[in-house]
UniProtKB/TrEMBL annotation:
Family: Belongs to the BI1 family.
Membrane topology: Multi-pass membrane protein
InterPro entries the record matches: Bax_inhibitor_1-related (IPR006214)
Any one cellular-component term (Gene Ontology): membrane
The protein's name: Uncharacterized protein
Subcellular location: Membrane
């Protein structure tokens, strides 16, 4: 008696679902059955992701430097210290908390879309400085929520090899929090 299964090999469409059309290895993806190409290429992808993260961080820091030059030094330092304090406090709160912050995701996403939409309208129909201050305060609240959400997702849902996604999420949260605090503190000086 042979080890060959009694059923016919899967069709092309079926083989895409189960990985390979080899009757001896029906449930093994073809990348693994052919010698592990996935593992070999993932190292190159990880290295490329690190370089892209470095480039992204560098370009963002240039942009933030240009924006920060437009404000007084004490305002920039106040915004930075306040952003660091908020970020660390919210991160520690998320580590200690038993709340499920994953439900905040859709709410924060649509709130951010609303702020972006209002910002686009502001390009064509300029609002007053008071309204822009209100938008900055709302943005600070939104990005504080994103810090809670992203930290919770990193702790409970991301795998260790997804550290680049985690870095970008928290980095963008901090940068946007800092920029909006800078707007608020810079507007209060005027």
């Amino acid at each position: 008696m042979s080890n060959v299964p009694n059923h016919p090999p899967p069709t092309y469409e079926e083989s895409q679902l189960i990985g390979t059309n080899d009757p001896y290895y029906p449930n093994i993806p073809s990348e693994f059955a052919e010698g592990g190409k996935v593992g070999e290429s993932s190292l190159e992808i990880r290295m490329a992701n690190r370089y892209l993260l470095g480039l992204f961080t560098f370009m963002t820091s240039l942009t933030i430097g240009i924006v920060s030059v437009q404000y007084e030094l004490d305002v920039v330092l106040q915004a930075l210290i306040l952003a660091i304090a908020l970020f660390v406090s919210l991160t520690l709160f998320t580590f200690q908390s038993k709340y499920d912050f994953s439900k905040l995701g859709p709410i924060l996403f649509f709130a951010l879309l609303g702020v972006i939409f209002v910002g686009l309208i502001n390009i064509f129909i300029p609002f007053g400085s008071t309204f822009r201050l209100v938008i900055a305060v709302v943005s600070v609240i939104i990005f504080c929520g994103f810090i809670l959400f992203d930290t919770y997702m990193i702790i409970n849902h991301l795998y260790p090899d997804q550290y680049i996604d985690a870095c970008i999420s928290l980095y963008l949260d901090f940068i946007n929090l800092f920029l909006n605090l800078l707007r608020i503190l810079g507007n209060s000086d005027n």
